[in-house]
Amino acid sequence: MYRSLILLLIASSLLSLSSCGGPHLPADADPAEVFVLGISTLDPDHLQELIERGELPHFRRIIERGSWSELQAIDPMSTASLWADLQTGKSPRWHRVFGELETLPNGLIYPSRSTLRNSMSVWQMLSATNHTVAVVGLPVSWPAEVVRGQMVSMAIVPNRWTETSEVTFRPRPRRRQTYPNFLADEIGDLLLDPDAVTREELSRFFVLNEQEFSMAYDEPLGSIFRHENPLRDFVLTHQADLSHLRVIDGLRRQYHPEISAVFLELPAVVSPVYWRYLEPQVYPGDEENLRRFSMTIDESYRWVDERLGEILDTFDPKTSTLVVVSEKGYGTVYHEDAQGVRRPHPEARPRGLIILYGHGIQQGRRLHGATVFDLTPTLLTLFGEGIGEDLDGRCLSGAFTAAFAHTHPPFQRTSYEAQWDRSGRFERLPPLADTSLPDAAVPPTP
């Protein structure tokens, strides 16, 4: 009987080891990788509604097994400005990015460029502390800045911001679109043409006639602000998102960066045009278009959930940390008209979302009070780095497990920009600096 008990214990131990699915990092160690998935205009309320309907299984998984918070956005409510907030930890008064477009003294109009941003990005902060990065497709990323790793700018493929009629500038192919510059040729085979989006894929999101298929493939974008050709806008964004995902997957496999980031914009493209068909009780009277476009918004969320699932297939939560972030939401807002009547309008809302999942992160924790300025301090603290004293945000350390929080307490240091040579940010790495201020603790998130 004693021998049988020993054999049973050994078998139980082997079964337990086999079920672990791979090695674990010590609970207090830095993540092997931090992966940041940026999704523009993912509304937290609608996301929760779809999850409660039994959809979006991958979002359900990371919310239930991670920590999350709504994310307070501020004016200006443009994607470019809010992503500058996220990437710098500072308000627009410091980083100076106020909108999607930038008018030069000579009259040319560009999509807002990284040269306009007057504050250091978190990617350069982490580079300055010897961490390797790979960043793909983020707003306000052209020209590509020098990092300790790879930077692929938003201009690497045709997209809604480089093709809109309001923009008078077109970037030269392969010129300052990546860092290092030769990377553009290395990733060329991973980039998709807009025509790669098939009719079958379009039919997943819309019910279209032949004239509308022609709009998607053969007609120019026109204005994204007046929705002149929303189908072409959709095709451009769809292929850009897929290209970004293919590139970040290739960079992660080849270079194994410590922190990776990629940006998807599909929900931002469909929300302004098709939200009214999501709420027919609020916007009645358009039965034909309701039949053709009622699934568009929901399908874009399902598409993003599928892409999240593909990322999770390459991701080990026992060793790495995933951060999903959306800079703003979307929904119906009521305004009074000239006669004082309250009328509904679909528009962006200052409520984004941040989800943390994986190594070092508590399960099933709801946080409160997060802002767009908190992403940068949180990423720095995940790697045990100090938070610049000039940042407006705080670390979301309330998401951390007790063991991880013990070895990764938020602390302040002098500004990363104290030794930042702005003139060299596109030519050479920022200088290494260790100017911690251990006595100036940053209050943890409650």
Q: In words, what does this structure look like?
A:
The structure is a single chain. The chain is of the alpha/beta class. It has one domain: Alkaline Phosphatase, subunit A (3-Layer(aba) Sandwich). It is 34% helix and 18% strand. It is built from 16 helices and 17 strands. The chain has helices spanning 2-18, 44-52, 57-64, 79-88, 92-95, 122-128, 160-163, 183-186, 199-205, 210-217, 230-255, 266-274, 287-293, 296-313, 375-382, 402-407, and strands spanning 34-39, 66-72, 101-103, 109-111, 133-136, 149-152, 178-179, 259-264, 321-326, 329-336, 342-349, 351-358, 365-366, 370-371, 387-388, 411-413, 436-441. The radius of gyration is 23 Å and the shape is globular. The termini are far apart. The relative contact order is 0.19.
Q: How does the helix and strand content classify structurally?
A: alpha/beta
Total domain units: 1
Shape descriptor reads globular
Ends: how far apart? Answer: 53 Å
Please give the radius of gyration in angstroms: 23 Å
Helix content range of the residues, please?
Answer: 25-40%
Corresponding CATH architecture: 3-Layer(aba) Sandwich
- Main sheet attributes: strand count, strand direction, barrel closure: 10 strands, mixed
Work out the strand percent. Answer: 15-25%
Q: Total strand count, please?
A: 17
CATH class: Alpha Beta
Mean pLDDT: 89
